[in-house]
Amino acid sequence: MSILVDRDTRLLVQGITGREGEFHALQMQAYGTRIVAGTSPGKGGQRALDGTVPIFDTVRDAVAASGADTSVIYVPAPGAPDAILEAVDAGVATIFCITEGIPALDMLKVVPIVEAAGARLIGPNCPGATSPGRAKVGIIPASIHREGRVGLVSRSGTLTYEVVQALTDAGLGQSTCVGIGGDPIHGLGFRDVLALFRDDPETEAIVLIGEIGGGEEEEAAAFAAEHMAGRPMVAFIAGRSAPEGKRMGHAGAIISGGMGTAMGKITALEAAGIRVAASPTQIPRLLLEAGVRAQ
Amino acid sequence: MKLQEFHARRLLRDAGLPVPPWSVAATAAEVREAAAGYLAAGATRVVIKAQVLVGGRGKAGGVKLATTAAEADAAGQALLGMDLKGITVRRVLVAPGADIVAEYYLGAVLDRSARRILLMGSAAGGVEIEEVARTDPAAIVRIPVHPHLGLLDHQARRMAFDLGLAAHLKATSAVARGLVSVLLASDADLVEVNPLAVVRDRAADGSVMLVLQCLDAKMSIDDSALYRHPELEALRDLDEEDPTDGQARAEGLNFIKLEGNIGCMVNGAGLAMTTMDLVKLAGGAPANFLDIGGGARSDKVAAAMRLILEDANVCAILVNIFGGITRGDEVARGLIEARAGQSREVPMIVRIVGTNAQEAAAILEAAAFETALSLDDAAAKAVAAAGRAVAAR
């Protein structure tokens, strides 16, 4: 098993004719992800990805014709909040938003609507999710994965790739790798993804990649202490050397008023019995020490 | 992006908030002229405030009072050109001094970590709200604002009553609603008035009334939303930012200058922070945070290298690229291009993995770059190179 994306995922690509959308749709399809439809307003009736995927003008049409249950959004920031709401309106259950740079107020308005509709949003500003050997949704490079039983959840993009590569090199395959995104106002959080991993019998151990800013790592630590017994967890927190008051690239990565420091997060995680690596390369070792077997 | 006080004042005044008059002056003569005008119109004194984007201006000596035009002139001379927390004062704001009866704090803030808009108020005005939050958190009134509905009338009234401003119910409610409207309309993270003051206002006939006035204004705008607010982008104060900030923005690079001597070039914010952390763990000090973003091409890499080398402290450079959308060979070619055109020789340690890493390795080897396979190894090599460079100086 796996979480969020699997062999039976029926994927819709919003913005399939854009440069990013088309490039990544090809990669996802090559990985074996079932792409059942794309949208591009005004291009309905045409076909994308060498004629293999029908294009629709609206998400409603796409869902009605293809039975898509998951969508991935590659629409630029000014149109992305509307793209999320269009997917919600059409009844899509799981929505990945890859788009970076969406204004915070837009997400503040969008998130309650997504939640009220009972849909799941991952992102924005996230790399997506991959269940190795089954399906990938988003932009995570396919080559770094290996099938296995370690679940990974992260606020970052390339740092995630770094850690996944280290796991793969150590023979530690993954059940699912999920990037929840670097924006402060987003859909699924660490806690939500941990709950999904807990309910997945094939996820044996979990890696959590956090960074400075906000309080989600602390919430995840509290959740893990109570609900994740028997699942070894290893964490890494980026930004130990980051100065206060500077936004380190991600909109959410900022220490302000002494809150959101790496040390505060590390302390909270360790207090919950989670081992925290000092470097990404230590993560596989800590997992092996915790009894997780390489395959 | 932070706005200068005089820009924030104008946005609040345009939204109908009670902001008393002010002038902006860039020379002592302009300060004198503005002050003379306010004094002639009946003000007993004027306040002169340095316009810089740093907090705690008053404590740092950036705010002065004057009772005559000559005093105002002297204050202008003292403030203009002054170094305030590392920033040169180029402009001051001149305003009639208010006869303050009581001071309050009122602000609308986009609380990112709590993921909501908050209206915050405190009867301890004139003090930094962070200070109040630390020493007496119960003294802060917090009202969550619905992102679709804005501040509701009953919420605005509650703020007025909770602050003890029942005598100014309508005025306080209007200011509260105005702050939230400005936040929503301008995509601000923060719209703050501190102090919001009850002042004695003397009318022309000599009668005295107590009125509510916004005596300061502070705003910052969500950087991601500036694309739809060109009128606010135009208010960016280029004089106050490091020149490299503007260059980085123009090139689409995410750059933050730090104090150390090891320049870092990385793709992705999380990996860039991690690279800095590992440099520190290996005993070095990063000179910057630099995220070149996804899919960077060789010209962007060259621009990033120029930016790093502009910092005279930099004596070693660590390049760490995990190719996903970014192609390793593109970065390698960019590094060669950058090295050919760079102003000074600095040891460079390059680690490129992921997409097209093998092509990159061949290019780097042919060009005799020092490379590293793991991130830990790259950090250790960069710290060693910086140590040798410092010793040789």
Report how far apart the termini of chain B are: 39 Å
CATH class of the largest domain in chain A: Alpha Beta
Number of strands of chain B: 19
Number of domains of chain A: 2
Low-confidence stretches of chain B: none
Summed over residues and divided by their number, the pLDDT of chain B gives a mean of 92
Q: Uncertain runs of chain A with pLDDT below 50, 5 residues or more?
A: none
Principal-axis shape of chain A equals globular
Share of helical residues of chain A: 25-40%
Largest interface between protein chains, with number of residues from each side: A-B, 59 and 51 residues
What's the helix count of chain B? Answer: 13
Give the topology string of chain A: H per helix, E per strand.
EHEEEHEHEHEEEEHEHEHEHEH
* CATH homology superfamily of the largest domain in chain A: Succinyl-CoA synthetase domains
The Rg value of chain B, from CA coordinates, equals: 26 Å
Overall SS class of chain B: alpha+beta
Summing up helix and strand content along with how strands pair, one would put the structural category of chain A as: alpha/beta
Relative strand content of chain A: 15-25%
